[in-house]
């Protein structure tokens, strides 16, 4: 059975050429990525620059962590997954790697179901560190194999810090654990991480596999001669290319009789995809004993690992290439997240606009009511007719010589004042009720989430009536003060007499709310006593003040809907801006 390193031809890169020549260190464009921006590959960041970069990365992490996608808009699940992936990569790889750039390199061994990842790791480690077998999927808990001198870094370090460290796999370990095994057969400075299958039928395994890849300094992708053209394989290669990750490929289970055809086709596919120069290794179909391949099948790959181990600069360069590739990927991944966030913000703005429109309409409704005279009806009209017809009107306005003690206000005056206050309250509360109903109807029409978060908000708050009563009573007192301080009677009369300002203020209210054609309403009386100029001035101020007080009441009601939007996790307008700014600051720091 001929070994993959013996296959010759221009289309195939031999393992011995890769391990012994300059092919291990590829230019970034040869690895399928673009030339990284910022710090040049191969250069160490100065301490001050590293601190600046760490600060920018920390701010970006906080900005991403603060994101909330409360609306079930199209693509929201993808956005939430992208957020989780970015956070996991920042916390589990980027930040730890920037803090300790000289730490051992983590090489993730990834591939599709049955590709032989665990068998390859066991063979290189010369130890059964990862379970193998015909049952699929086999690997459920990631297994990391490293040299004993590197074990502390991987067992206690921040890399993949969210995973529980285990000394051996256990039945209940699950995909959130990480088994750390040491072996002197692996060279110091590099570690191999066996991952669950990228196309596992178990969703958790699939997610963990991608999380492991996000924390890798280098990737070894394992596929078979029978499955190298499958979609999952090329999906992973596409991801590696997008991330600018340093990558090597192992093509396993190659039958000698078909090796030339398979290898030429595979290389052609890689070349067409812009990845023709990546490191490649071939493993022939061979008998697996105790979960391991014959050692001769991995000689060239073992030499490649040894080269990385002894050449610190080459290893550091590979690590920096991958790190730069990840940072470069943030240029598109983070703005894509921000774009979806802007969709959430835009929808929040629409919901908020529904609230503003409803309460603005309620305020206009009240404006219309006191302009067309509809406020003077029912109890208010009855009290006014009783007040005017009983003689209390003239007695309350009776001219009094200066210095005479003011008489106590008749009961009809007090009752009339209370009726006006109650009438205004009922108009305001009714308008607020209609506004709340309108908001809820609009939100329910927009989305199911709108219906959910508007639950219980179709009526005003329990405090509205009490707050409205206080506001109207305060406004009545304010109007009385305006009449007292600004309603100076005609000069010829004011020299001899003074007026009961509270009663005059009540009549002024009737004049304000009766409209221009109200029958029996004392427009001429108020005009005669105060003068047309004072009437217009006081009226404008009184209406403006009343409108402001009602506006404050409605603002308090509208705040309930803003709180509902906040509690639903719908972001405000500033969140996307902070995300863009954090991305820009990261580019500056690089």
From TrEMBL:
GO terms for cellular component: cytosol. Residues 1-40 are annotated as: Disordered. One of its GO terms (biological process) is ribosomal small subunit assembly. Residues 107-227 form the G domain. Pfam families: MMR_HSR1. InterPro entries: GTP-bd (IPR006073), GTPase_Era-like (IPR005662), P-loop_NTPase (IPR027417). Residues 1-14 have a biased composition (Basic and acidic residues). One of its GO terms (molecular function) is rRNA binding. This is AAA family ATPase.
């Amino acid at each position: 059975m001929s070994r993959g390193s013996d296959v010759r031809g221009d289309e195939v890169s031999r393992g011995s050429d890769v391990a012994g020549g300059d092919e291990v260190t590829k230019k970034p464009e040869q690895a399928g990525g673009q030339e990284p921006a910022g710090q040049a590959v191969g250069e160490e960041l100065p301490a001050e620059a590293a601190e600046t970069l760490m600060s920018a990365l920390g701010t970006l992490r906080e900005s991403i962590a603060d994101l909330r996608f409360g609306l079930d808009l199209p693509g929201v699940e993808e956005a939430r997954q992208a957020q989780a992936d970015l956070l996991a990569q920042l916390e589990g790889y980027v930040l730890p790697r920037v803090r300790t750039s000289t730490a051992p390199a983590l090489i993730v061994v990834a591939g599709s179901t049955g590709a032989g990842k665990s068998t390859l790791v066991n063979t290189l480690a010369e130890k059964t560190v990862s379970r193998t077998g015909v049952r699929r999927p086999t690997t459920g808990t990631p297994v990391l194999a490293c040299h004993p001198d590197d074990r502390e870094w991987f067992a206690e370090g921040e890399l993949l810090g969210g995973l529980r460290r285990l000394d051996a796999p256990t039945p209940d370990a699950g995909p959130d654990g990480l088994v750390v095994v040491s072996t002197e057969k692996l060279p110091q400075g590099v570690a191999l991480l066996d991952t669950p299958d990228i196309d596992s039928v178990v969703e958790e395994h699939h997610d963990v596999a991608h999380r492991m890849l996000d924390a890798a300094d280098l990737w070894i992708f394992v596929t078979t001669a029978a499955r190298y053209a499958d979609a999952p394989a090329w999906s992973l290669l596409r991801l590696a290319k997008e991330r600018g990750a340093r990558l090597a490929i192992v093509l396993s289970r190659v039958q000698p009789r078909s090796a030339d055809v398979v290898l030429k086709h595979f290389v052609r596919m890689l070349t067409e995809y812009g990845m023709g120069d990546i490191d490649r290794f071939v493993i022939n179909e061979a008998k697996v004993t105790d979960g391991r391949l014959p050692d001769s099948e991995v000689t060239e790959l073992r030499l490649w690992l040894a080269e990385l181990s002894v050449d610190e600069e080459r290893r550091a360069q590979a690590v920096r290439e991958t790190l730069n590739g990840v940072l470069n990927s943030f240029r598109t991944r983070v703005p894509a997240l921000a774009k979806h966030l802007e969709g959430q913000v835009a929808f929040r703005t629409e919901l908020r606009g529904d609230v503003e429109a409803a309460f603005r309409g309620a305020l206009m409704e009240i404006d219309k009511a006191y302009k067309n005279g509809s406020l003077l009806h029912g109890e208010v009209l009855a009290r006014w007719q009783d007040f005017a017809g009983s003689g209390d009107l003239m007695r309350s306005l009776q001219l009094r010589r200066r210095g005479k003690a003011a008489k106590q206000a008749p009961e009809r005056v007090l009752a009339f004042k209370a009726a006006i206050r109650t009438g205004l309250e009922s108009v305001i509360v009714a308008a607020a009720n209609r506004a709340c109903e309108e908001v809820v109807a609009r939100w329910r029409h927009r989305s199911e989430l709108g219906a959910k978060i508007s639950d219980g908000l179709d009526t005003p708050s329990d405090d509205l009536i009490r707050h409205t009563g206080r506001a109207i009573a305060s406004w009545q007192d304010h109007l009385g003060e305006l009449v007292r301080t600004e309603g100076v009677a005609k000069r010829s009369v004011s020299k001899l007499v003074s007026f009961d300002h509270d009663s005059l203020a009540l009549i002024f209210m009737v004049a304000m709310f009766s409209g221009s054609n109200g029958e029996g309403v004392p427009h001429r009386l108020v005009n005669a006593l105060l003068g047309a100029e004072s009437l217009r001035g006081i009226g404008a101020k009184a209406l403006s003040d009343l409108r402001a007080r009602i506006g404050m009441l409605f603002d308090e009601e509208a705040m309930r809907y803003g709180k509902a939007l906040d509690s639903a996790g719908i972001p405000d307008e500033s969140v996307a801006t902070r995300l863009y700014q954090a991305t820009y600051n990261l580019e500056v720091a690089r």
